[in-house]
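User: Could you check the structure of this?
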Amino acid sequence: MSTWYKIVKNVSTDWKHFGDVKSSWRNSDNVGICVVFDISNNKCRLIAYINYRSHKVFILHILSHAEYGKEGWKNDCECD
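Assistant: Sure, the predicted structure tokens are below.
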């Protein structure tokens, strides 16, 4: 997670939309209102909400593959 944090800290002020996020962290996906990042050499998923206007990134969940697969996190991302 420290690598993710360093990257986000340095570039999140430049993010205006998901395409900018994807350019910074290629292993990311837009899911509902959230962005899912593969972190720790693909061992975990970090679920975040990004407010592009204020350049703030809110970590909602850090999950193992098993926890991620249960999909409870989707409730926080307004997924149907």
